[in-house]
Amino acid sequence: MLALTTLVVCAAAAVFGVWLAQAGGESAAPAGWQGALRPPGAHVPAFRLRDQDGETVTAASLRGRTTVFAFVYSTCKDVCPAQVRSIRGALDRLGHDVPVLGVSVDPANDTPDRARTFLIDQAMRGRMEFLLGTRAQLEPVWKAFGIAPQTKGRDHSSYTVIVDGAGRQRIGFPADQLTPSRLAADLSKFS
């Protein structure tokens, strides 16, 4: 009888533990937001990078506009394309475009030609700029957003972040939690 009681108590504890873990996962997004709040005081650093067409993009040029930052690389075959398709779907749901910046996490291999091809393949040419630079130029942006770049033997941090018009990082989505509807819902609060 004691063994049966112990078994029932352990089973109940396991069920409660699973429920608690699931409840914790669901409440990870702050009330009213689909994504996760970014750390207070997290801003976009000053940067000056070139896009896939050689045009200069700076942090200052984004002031006053809600912007989506996505950390991607041009030769990615799985996560990055899915991430960008979700962003495209969010813009479609939103009904209007907002600036979208794809920041290279593989500067050694991301070339202007590869970046243009990536944007064309993802049907984002004209809707997203792919920011390129040297490792030294990109590192301050990676650091400000908490991004680990692509390296041999290690995948990069796959994150999409909404930045408000004041340059503050507001809401973030890891790639596995990014959906068009969730991103569109949060973007609509800034429009």
Key attributes of the depicted protein:
6-stranded mixed beta sheet; 5 helices; 17% strand; two-stranded antiparallel sheet; single chain; disordered N terminus; alpha/beta; 191 residues; Glutaredoxin; 2 domains
Helix/strand order, N-terminal first: HEEEEHEHEHEEH
User: How many individual β-strands?
Assistant: 8
Reported for the largest beta sheet, the result is:
6 strands, mixed
CATH superfamily of the largest domain: Glutaredoxin
| Proportion of residues in helical segments | 25-40%
Q: How many structural domains?
A: 2
What is the CATH C level class of the largest domain, in words?
Answer: Alpha Beta
Strand content: 15-25%
Mean pLDDT: 85
Helix/strand/pairing category: alpha/beta
**What is the rounded distance between the termini?**
63 Å
Which fold does the CATH topology of the largest domain refer to?
Glutaredoxin
Describe this structure in words.
The chain has 191 residues and is an alpha/beta fold. It folds into 2 domains: 1-30; 32-188, Glutaredoxin (3-Layer(aba) Sandwich), CATH 3.40.30. The chain contains 5 helices and 8 strands; from the N terminus they run αββββαβαβαββα. It has helices spanning 2-26, 79-94, 112-121, 135-145, 180-188, and strands spanning 36-37, 48-50, 56-58, 67-72, 100-104, 129-131, 159-163, 169-174. The strands form 2 sheets. Strands 1-8-7-4-5-6 form a 6-stranded mixed β-sheet, with helices on both faces. It has a two-stranded antiparallel ribbon with strand order 2-3. Strand 7 and strand 8 form a beta hairpin. Helix 2 packs across helix 5 (180-188). The termini are far apart. Residues 1-28 have low confidence and may be disordered.
